[in-house]
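Lab meeting notes turned into a lecture example. A postdoc, R.K., suggested we walk through two folding results consecutively so the class can see how the record format repeats. The first protein's sequence and structure tokens come next.
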Amino acid sequence: MGRRPTDLSGRKFGMLTAKYATEKRDKRGSVYWHCVCDCGNEVDVTAAGLVHGNYQSCGCLQKKNRHEIAQRRHLVDGTCVEVLEKRKSRKDNMSGFRGVFQLKNCNRYRVDIGFKGKRYYVGLFDNYDEAVQARLAAENLIHNGFIQKWKEWNEKEKEDPKWGEEHPLVFDVKKEDGEIRVRV
């Protein structure tokens, strides 16, 4: 004889109210509970998931949170200003600096930078420090340049929304004659 499952009926877990235990069990034997969300949707969730706080809603809370985060972000021409302002190195970066990659078969470093869904080749360097400096210069030109122009444009647009409609923010990056150029 196994132990009797805890009666969760009527208990509230976040936005979910447990109604009744079902016959369904997960691979660990946890009972699925039929729950009603505050939004009106119904969902079956394991007792362990409810008790440990893994489930707070039918999924509507996650959608709501995503929507709220999207509303707080400033997405301009496919670029998120907040992401550029708070950019960090990726955990899987092997060189120690974002956009700087050591080539496998030689002791050289390739430098790239991304902007508006495109990747731009900055150059190939023999020295790591030179590669990092080139990447920082490209960030200053593109990322910091974009943030500065957006802030200036945003201030004018706040003062006069009609001006903002008539003068959309344009910040284009092009690679010409081996150099990255910005057109504002």
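The second example is placed directly after the first for contrast:
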Amino acid sequence: MDKPFFRKKYKSLRENLSLETCDNKSIDIANQLLKLPIWNLEFYHIFLTIEKLKEINTEYILNILNGKDKNTAIAQSDFTNSTMRHFLLTDNTLIKVNCWGIPEPQGGIEIDPSQLDVVLVPLLAYDIEGNRLGYGKGFYDRFLSSCKPDCLKIGLSFFEPENELPTNNNDIKLTHCVTPNKTYTF
């Protein structure tokens, strides 16, 4: 089976979740994340939820990061070259939803990926080896390849892992994946 097969499968699984189920599972994921020994680090990167795609609601994790007074960065996508710039999330950060439905910062204090200690990674699917399947544009693989080697790459998923996903040489593996019921370490 190829990547388009798994993308279609997991988009369909998400579409079939009710908004209430997505929200409850998102709270469970945030609670599982609290159990990881990552809270003594300084710089965290988080994705903002694309609601129309029923992604994990990261507001709960943002509340944790704010409550722990962590430096939190969010991304702005450049679709001309499939890259992202990263900005510190502050009380003054203006966020606007782009034409793809992605909430993004409109400037601010730029953060270099090499400063990040933890990246919370969106995904459609992942496998028991830590391979991740995203939407297919390579934004996160390019981004993660520019992070420092010991940066934690933590996927967030409503679902359990596949046994094996198709991969290529540009794919960056996760170090962890957090689900509503369990955290996987790779």
